[in-house]
Write a structure and sequence with these properties.
The complex is a heterodimer of chains A (about 240) and B (about 100). By secondary structure, chain A is mostly helical. Helices cover about 75% and strands about 0% of the residues of chain A. Chain B has about 100 residues and is mainly α. The chains are: A mainly alpha (about 240), B mainly alpha (about 100). Chain A: It is found in: Cell membrane.
Chain lengths: ~240, ~100
């Protein structure tokens, strides 16, 4: 029933927009604490309120924004911060290749907007809709992204304003919240093939590099160790599974 | 403009490149080599682990305990309960065992 209705009304942009919007609401709620956390940690690490908002509005990539803050707080060279953000976002390359096939009918600027808004849940919902045989229209895509993007940017502002009011960030564990958040993301990948060897290799290499070569390099050296382990352990039969 | 603003703009451009790059580059290949694909799949876990392991093993025991606790919670619950219980854990630890 639901699918028949949406197929019939697929060409009405307003209906499509609100259909997407409804899908975006749970994503918006789930990302809210992290949008607020980003703003609060940003001012704690020396960002102004407007810089925090600018970052959320132009990157729109939660995990990598947190990585940027973490490294900025450690006084690491700017190009290494940018490189680390790039590395965390590199998974988008895979989303982009998949979603690109679903949005061939978009105009050039619609595609530009669509790729800019391509966050993890946007990818997941678009794939789900495409696989269900429903039309992925620009109105639907934009409707899905709107509540998430608007609130993500607003949360950076709210979080930053409240972050300014926190008198003792250490007591409320603000410096540990990012590692906890990153650990949560690491754990969320644990169903992927070769996850444990990758994590052990990256973890061991990063601690070793942190204690020998020094601070910025533990990120790239640790990551390279994990990626190499994944490539070495890969078997041809497993392609296409992910 | 401040360094922060430059970092933000550079990072925004790089982020956009990852989001458009797969469509422009990766989709031209019929097949991706399985080792390359496995490596790409491992990137997020590999990078993010490097931001967890050093603080867990080189800072205070409270941080190690909080991350261990959060990791155990994550094996049973989703991100949201894991995050908030981990936060509560470190706040309590620091309250009862300052320094």
């Amino acid at each position: 029933m639901d699918q028949a209705v949406s197929a019939k009304t697929a060409r009405r942009p307003r209906v499509d927009f609100w259909e997407g919007f409804r899908k975006g609401l749970p994503v918006m709620v789930a990302s809210a604490p992290f949008g607020l956390l980003f703003g609060a940690v940003a001012v704690d690490n020396g960002f102004s309120v407007s810089e925090a908002v600018l970052m959320s509005a132009t990157l729109y990539a939660g995990a990598s924004q947190m990585v940027g803050l973490e490294l900025f707080g450690q006084k690491i060279a700017p190009w290494l911060i940018v490189l680390s953000i790039f590395a965390v976002n590199f998974r988008h390359v895979l989303y982009s290749a998949a979603v690109g096939r679903r949005i061939r009918h978009f105009t050039f600027w619609q595609k530009v907007a669509a790729f800019f808004l391509l966050v993890d849940p946007q990818y997941a919902e678009t794939e789900k809709r495409g696989e269900a045989g429903l039309p992925v229209t620009f109105a639907w895509y934009l409707g899905l992204a709107t509540p998430v993007y608007v609130m993500w940017t607003a949360e950076a502002f709210i979080g930053a304003v409240f972050g300014n009011l926190i008198s003792d960030p250490h007591a409320i564990g603000l410096d540990v919240l990012l590692p906890i958040y990153f650990l949560g993301l690491v754990m969320s990948f644990r169903s992927r093939p070769r996850w444990l060897p990758v994590v052990i290799a990256s973890g061991a290499a990063s601690v070793l590099a942190y204690n020998t070569v020094g601070s910025p390099w533990h990120v790239s050296l640790g990551a390279i160790a994990g990626i190499l382990v994944a490539a070495i352990l890969a078997k041809p039969a497993e392609t296409g599974k992910n | 403009m401040s360094t922060i603003v430059w970092i933000i703009f550079a990072a925004a451009v790089m982020t956009f490149l990852t989001r458009v790059g797969g469509h422009l580059v990766l989709s031209r290949f019929e097949r991706i080599h399985y080792r390359v694909e496995a490596g790409l799949n491992a990137v997020p876990a590999a990078v993010l682990t490097t931001l967890v392991a050093p603080p867990a093993f080189t800072n205070s025991w409270q941080e190690f305990a909080a991350l261990l606790f959060s990791g155990l919670i994550a094996t049973r619950f989703s991100m949201m309960p894991m995050f908030f219980s981990g936060a509560a854990f470190i706040i309590l630890l620091r309250h009862f065992f300052p320094i």
